[in-house]
Structure formats: C-alpha cells, structure tokens
Amino acid sequence: MTGQLRDSDKTQLEQWIGQGQKQFTLLYSATSDGCTSQKFHEKCDYQGATVTLVYNEVGSVFGGYTSASWAGNVNSYTRDDKAFLFQLKVSNKDTFRKFPVSNSTYSIYSHSSNGPVFGGNTGYDMNLFSGTIASSGGLFQLNGGFAFGINYTMSGVSSWNDIHNGNLNIKELEVYSVAVKPPEATHQEWRKVPEWSKTLVKELMQGVQSIKPRNSLIQDYRIALIGPVGSGKSSFCNTINSVFKGRITQRALCGDGRQSVTKSYEPYEFKSTRDKAPHVRICDTRGLEPDFGIDTMEFTFLLDGHIPEKYQFQAEKPISFDDSAFVTKPELSNKVHCVVFVLDVSTLLKLDSEMIAKIKSFRTLTMRKGIPQAVILTKIDLLDKAVAQNLETVYSSNATAKTVQKACDMFGFSKQYVFPVKNYGDELMMDDGVNFLALFALRQIMYLSRDYFDNQSTDSTDCANTEEGHDLEAASESI
Q1: Where does a domain end: 118, 149, 180?
Q2: Same domain, 149 and 296
Q3: pLDDT for 211-241, tens place per residue?
Q4: In a domain, 193, yes or no
C-alpha cells in the first residue's frame, strides 16, 4: 500500500524531525482501511514514532508527529518532548510550518474510541475523529475538535482556519511509521575524476586560464546565471572570485530571503593575484520568481544582447524596445554564449509548478537559439553528511547522484552538464574541495561556450593558440 506523501514532504519532515534521513512506511489509510478508531489503533498502536497527515477537499495538508507510540488501551496522555504539529499545504500551495509542543505533558492522547489526538487537558489541540465516520461522496467529515495554541506553539498562523481553511471534509487521512533509514550500499562513482590534490586544483586553474575564444571579435565568453531567488547564483560568483584571488571574497551581495538581492545584470570578471585572468565574464541576474521578475521576453532580450551590463531589472516594468537602455544593435560580445541554471538542492523538490514551468520555458528558448546550457547544483553539503565532512565523496554519494538525476528528469538535462558545487559561505579559509568543484564546473561551462562558437558560421575566426596555452589545455582535458 502506497500513500500520498510526496518526496518533498518527506524531505521537509526529515528536517523537522532531525537526526538524518527517515524511512516512512504507510500504516493506516482512511480510504483503504476505513475511518474508524478501531482500525486506526489496530494498524498504528505500538509502532513507535509516527506522522499523521490529513488531506482536505480544498487542497490543504496538515498533521502531527510524535516519537511516542499510540496505545489505545491505556486511555491516557503520553509525554513527548519531540512532538509537533505542522502544515504542508494551504489551498494547494506549499506552505511549510512547524508548530512545536509547548506543554509536553499533554503531547498526545491515546483512547480506544479516538483516532489520533494531539494535546489535551483544557482542550485538544488536534482531535481528528472518534468512532466511525462513513464516506460520503469520497469525503469523510471529521467529528473531532481543534483548540488553538493550548499545548502547541502555533507561530505564523492566527487560527486553525489558516491551516485547514475551516473545512473538515477530508479526502484522506494517513499515518506513517517513521524509522531511521538504513544506510545504502556504497555507491560506485557516478562521475570519474582523478584523485583530488592541490596539484590537480592547480592544473584545473591553468586549464581554465588557457581556454580563450577563437573568435577575434570577443575577448571573453559571456555566461548568464539563471535561477530562483536564493539558489546561489551570487555565491557562485563569489566562490569563483575567491578561487582566483586565493582568499575568501564577497563582490556579489548574497541573501537567502524570499526576494532577490541581485537587482541588476551584473557581470563579473576574475583577476588572479598571480596568474592571468580567465577569458570569461559570468553575469549574475535577478532571481526568478513564479509571477515576478524576468519574463520570457526579457530573457530573450538578455540572450540576444539587448540588455546592457548593470541594467537594473524592474519587476513591474520589463525592458522593452523603446526603453532608453535597450541595446538596439548588440555586438557578438554582448550576446550570451552559455546559460547556466543554478538550483539549490535543498529546495529542488519544493519548486512549485509555476517555477518549474518558467525554467522549462527559458530552457526551450535557449535551445531554439542554439545556446548551450548547463546546471549548477548548490548546497550539496546539505544532502549528505559524508559529503559535508569530505567533499571528495561527492562523486560516490548516493544522495548526490539521485539529486543530479532528479534535476535531469525534471528539466530534461543531460547528466554530463550538471555540476554539483559547494559555494563558500561561512568558511574563513580556502578549501581545496570547494575550489576543485567550482573550477571543474567553470572549465566545462567554458568548453560549452567554445562549442557554441564552433557551431556558428562566422567569417572572422582566429584559431591561433600559443604553444603554452595548447599544452595547458591538453593537460586539463585529462582531468
């Protein structure tokens, strides 16, 4: 028997519960087993930690977690300091809120006549049903009660109506057991790379510096970073700059709020303290929002070079032909030579349908113009503790491999163009692992940009390479 619990919901619940990945096993379903207290206790008593989920008819999803066992025969309260209530959706919109227990003496209440009950004493915080509820038109009308903020801290909402819309007609009620997920077998390397070392990082840097445009009309490859708010675009720019400066830097402002910190079309060139600068210009952009920010027309103008550097994006008024800033005759150097979609692995499964559709539409526009694309997956240290402790394990990490594949499945990318990275964040010292992943991604992206020009029919090309540059590039090919 499989339930309705989504992967994104499991990920969120795992974060709230803590202590690693969990295995969720469906114990009870109102639609399959019947909405009766007898069946609930028959299926769920003495099963250890459980999570209860309610799905109402207007698209709201809420419930409760307890680390204690249900026990219908005891007819009493059970103390549980780890218990919490939560909401996952309101009116079909993802809304993640956790409501921790404030009076753990009355965390849950087990009684043979009741279904799941959270709270009690002066009022049950969430008493779902008692006895038997018959289905009517595929719905069950809950007959319990909901007291607000008695034993649980309900931060972020003003009443239960903010959670269940005042609608107690439910399509489903599920209870899952929650157990520690057993460790998976060691995964074979899903991407073959040589053994990491300082020498390898140095060779990668030299390889990046040796890649330069063959076309004499441009000096640098123009790379556009596109991604949702908070995905790590600006942090990636800072990471690349730090690699070439040899110290932690912050040229681009960063944030993790709901609104984009980056407001302009901001190009970054990277000057090394010792060696020559790479022939690349990475351009940060305003973070994508489902119904806000850059739209498809403005994105098209960006690709074609009609948007000037430093242009301030205006969410309420996208750039147009008659805008004084509009570049009417862009040069080849103004156009985008590669688009890099930046995605945060910790929110990948939480992207709403509007955001997914927007990214797909941008991807389609880019493909129509023959511009190469790549993906940067950020915050990979949040996926796997082993990776967080040692970035060298990223290419043998099951969690990372699955997330890379998930990104490919969601947006249609080829795995070879998806690059996991860990941006510099709270570090004070340089890290070879961070440097390697950033340089490896940058090198491959620059190769894609070169491929773009190889596919263009241009009359003016300059294929001359210095012997030194050729040797360095050839050396980096093996990395």
Answers
A1: 180
A2: no
A3: 999 888 899 999 999 999 889 999 999 999 9
A4: no
Q: Report residue 144 CA to chain centroid gap.
A: 37
Please tell me whether residues 102 and 244 are part of one structural domain.
no
Which residue segment(s) compose the domain that 90 sits in? 7-180
Q: Which of 151, 180, 209 is the last residue of a domain?
A: 180
- Give the model's pLDDT for residue 466: 36
* Integer Rg of the chain from CA: 27
What the block records as the tokens of 176 is: 């899952």
Question: Which band of pLDDT confidence, cut at 50, 70 and 90, is reported for residue 465?
Answer: very low
Q: Are residues 296 and 442 in the same domain?
A: yes
Full-model pTM? 0.63
Q: How many CB atoms lie under 10 A from the CB of residue 234?
A: 26
Residues 446 and 278: beta-carbon distance below 8 Å: yes
Q: Is residue 2 part of a domain?
A: no
User: Which residues are CB-neighbours of 359 under 8 A, at least 6 positions away?
Assistant: 226, 288, 341, 351, 411
Q: Is the pLDDT of residue 464 over 50?
A: no
CATH of the domain at 338: 3.40.50.300
**Confidence band (pLDDT; 50, 70, 90) for 112?**
very high
**Coil, strand or helix: which one is 398?**
helix
Q: Say whether both 264 and 155 belong to one domain.
A: no
- Give domain status of residue 111, yes or no: yes
Cβ partners under 8 Å of residue 208, min gap 6: 278, 280, 439, 442, 443, 446, 476
What band does 322 get if pLDDT is binned at 50, 70 and 90? confident
pLDDT one-digit tens code per residue, 370-403: 999 999 999 999 999 889 999 999 999 999 999 9
Q: How many domains does the chain have?
A: 2
**For 90-97, which contacts have Cβ atoms below 8 Å and span 24 or more sequence positions?**
90/59, 90/60, 90/162, 90/163, 90/165, 91/58, 91/59, 91/60, 91/165, 92/58, 92/59, 93/59, 93/352, 94/8, 94/350, 94/352, 96/12, 96/350, 97/155, 97/156, 97/157
Q: Do 174 and 202 have their domain in common?
A: no
Widest pairwise Cα distance in the chain: 85
Q: Is 465 exposed, middle or buried (0-12, 13-18, 19+ CB in 10 A)?
A: middle
End-to-end CA distance of the chain: 47
pLDDT, one tens digit per residue, over 300-314 is 999 999 999 988 888
Report whether 165 contacts 60 (CB < 8 A): yes
